[in-house]
Amino acid sequence: MQRICLFPGTFDPVTLGHTDIIDRALPLFDELVIGIGINSSKVPMFTVEQRVEWIREIYKHEPRIKVASYEGLTVNFCKEIKAQFILRGIRYVSDFEYEKAIADINRKLEHEVETIFLTCSPEYSTIASTLVRDVIRYKGDAAQFLPDVVANSINLKSSI
Q1: Is residue 133 annotated as part of the catalytic site, yes or no?
Q2: pLDDT per position in the chain (160 positions), as tens?
Q3: Residue of 91, 100, 107, 133 marked catalytic
Q4: Among the options 18, 51, 88, 153, which is catalytic?
Q5: Which terminus in the chain has less CB density within 10 A, N or C?
């Protein structure tokens, strides 16, 4: 049986923190699906299509990484893609408390899906998409927090 893992998130935008978790998780699984969750209560800065394109471009040479968008419960999407694992990145203790509560609920809803936590590398612990969006919104230099593909795409759009 293949070890399929879902890494869910909004990835708005994809940051170096995200890619750090993805890169370090990849050796653990046969397939890693980056799931862009569509949350009706959030208004994203970047379209789902743009976020999917970024991830595909970043990982175009890695066939074990797939990307898809989904709505609804994450455990339901896990069933749909036959994922036995959910990957979550942890920056701080407060992240763990929040993520553990979600993992506990997910486990009750679907006992065959296990949540795996990876702590981020120290150099990326302060990077949060919310903060990066603010830097972008107020015309700061966000390139230091983003993969080149994302930074170049944003710079191209802002120069038009």
Answers
A1: no
A2: 899 999 999 999 999 999 999 999 999 999 999 999 998 787 899 999 999 999 999 999 999 999 999 999 999 999 999 999 999 999 988 889 999 999 999 999 999 999 999 999 999 998 999 999 999 999 999 999 999 999 999 874 544 3
A3: 91
A4: 18
A5: C
pTM exceeds cut of 0.90 = yes
Question: In 3D, which of 64, 58, 74 has the Cα closest to residue 7?
Answer: 74
The answer to whether residues 15 and 132 touch, using CB atoms and an 8 Å cutoff, is: yes
- The rounded distance, in Å, linking the Cα atoms of 119 and 1 is 27
Can 18 be counted among the known catalytic residues? yes
Cis-peptide, bond into residue 13, ω within 30° of zero:
yes
* 129 in catalytic set: yes
Q: Does the annotation mark 91 as catalytic?
A: yes
Kindly give the residue spans of alpha helices, DSSP state H, lying in 2-128: 16-25, 48-58, 74-81, 93-109
Check 42, 60, 82, 157 and give the catalytic one.
Answer: 42
